[in-house]
Amino acid sequence: MKKNNTVSLQEYNTFGVAASTPLFVEIKSSLALQEKLKDEAFKDALILGGGSNILFLADLSKPVIKISIPGIRIINETEQIAVVSAGAGVVWHDLVMWCVANNLGGIENLSLIPGLVGAAPIQNIGAYGVELSDVFYDALCINRKTGESRIFNVKDCDFGYRDSAFKNDLKDAYVVTAVRLALTKKNHNLKTNYGNVKETLAQMGITKPNIEDISKAVVQIRTNKLPDPKKLGNAGSFFKNPIVPKGECARLLLQYPNMPHYHIDSNFDKIPAGWLIEQAGFKGLKKGKVGMHDKQALVLVNYGTLYGKLLWKHAKLVMEGVEKKFGISLEPEVNLIR
Ligand SMILES: Cc1cc2nc3c(=O)[nH]c(=O)nc-3n(C[C@H](O)[C@H](O)[C@H](O)COP(=O)(O)OP(=O)(O)OC[C@H]3O[C@@H](n4cnc5c(N)ncnc54)[C@H](O)[C@@H]3O)c2cc1C
User: N or C: which end of the chain has fewer CB within 10 A?
Assistant: First the structure.
């Protein structure tokens, strides 16, 4: 919607906060993107996918390029593996459904993650024991300054936990136009050990699951656990789960023997941020029109404000509370757009 020569971004972010941009364009091909990037007016544009991992703190002074590049196809295959290419504008869950329907395994645990394919490598999306990096083949990208195409392999992307080179050294340097995944055609490597996937499959009466069963179980779990952004504005987990040195984890365990923690490697453990937030008293706590969700303490929820900065204010309160109680600094997973 255009108002006072600006375009509203309210329907383009899953928090549903009000923000506007002076210039908005939707791009449907790599060529069109290369052309647009030559335009000085779009030099500093925000690249927007489905808006499910951003929080607008104010109106933007910069333009927005919304990526809507379509298309899913198999570009190469052997007896075991198919390489699937998906345009950056494909809805992630549609890609998962397409793969499941074609019996291509590897991303069924990532069912129902909101957003578009192009954003998936940015934070190396993950859920239920699988990360994008597990099946990533490469990504086609365009250099924002030069307009040149470049293929990024898994090493170039430097993937980490909810992290990649695109969030660090290469921040705002490239636009992803397509992502290619190496998926199994048979002997799928099924992962049912994470969260309550196994229990849900058992409840569904399934003892020998296939990839479709796992996808259905994940959809069921997520639908029960996470607030639907169409009804309650949110961006999923607002914070990353902190990864702390083992010594730090041991110190906390002396004080909180029931604290959940997961082994990362010989030096580090991961502590669920949701547990820390709950223990600090913020789970289900609503302050005016914002708060942390009552079923999932990690999810910051918009109960009706138009102001992103109020959500951020509450997030900072939560961060302070956790820091004070545990001495741990939470880091936002969501991208703050100022
Ligand atoms: C209910 C809910 C549940 C969620 N659950 C999960 C989960 O389980 N696991 C998980 O990992 N995430 C989860 N998320 C977060 C979110 O879905 C993912 O981060 C998703 O990949 C964001 O996609 P998007 O298209 O909406 O990105 P956007 O929010 O539009 O953009 C995110 C960032 O990527 C950049 N970007 C977007 N597209 C491109 C592109 N083509 N090229 C370069 N940069 C780009 C943007 O500039 C921005 O910095 C959840 C969100 C919600 C609302």
Answer: N
Instruction: Name the segment(s) of the chain with CATH classification 3.90.78.10.
Output: 233-337
* Residue ranges matching CATH 3.30.465.10 in the chain: 72-225
d(CA 19, CA 331): 23
Options 3.90.78.10, 3.90.480.10, 3.60.110.10, 3.90.470.20; which CATH number does 233-337 get?
3.90.78.10
Please tell me the distance between residue 103's alpha carbon and the centre of ligand 1 in angstroms. Answer: 25
CATH of segment(s) 72-225: 3.30.465.10
Q: What is the distance in A from the centroid of ligand 1 to the CA of 27?
A: 18
Spatial contact of 178 and 87, defined as CB atoms under 8 Å apart: yes
Q: What is the model's pTM?
A: 0.96
Report the distance separating Cα 295 and Cα 12, nearest Å. Answer: 25
Contacts of 311-318 spanning 24+ positions with Cβ under 8 A: 311/15, 311/17, 311/55, 312/55, 312/57, 312/336, 314/287, 314/290, 315/238, 315/239, 317/282, 317/287, 318/239, 318/277, 318/280, 318/282, 318/292
Residue 85: active-site member: no
- What's the token pair of residue 192? 């049912």
What are the average pLDDT values for consecutive 10-residue runs of the chain, which has 338 residues?
82 98 98 97 96 98 98 98 98 98 98 98 97 98 97 98 96 98 98 94 97 98 94 97 97 97 95 98 97 96 98 98 98 96
Q: Work out which ligand 1 atom sits closest to the CA atom of 48.
A: 30
- Dihedral, CA of residue 154, residue 159, residue 161 and residue 164, to nearest 10: -140
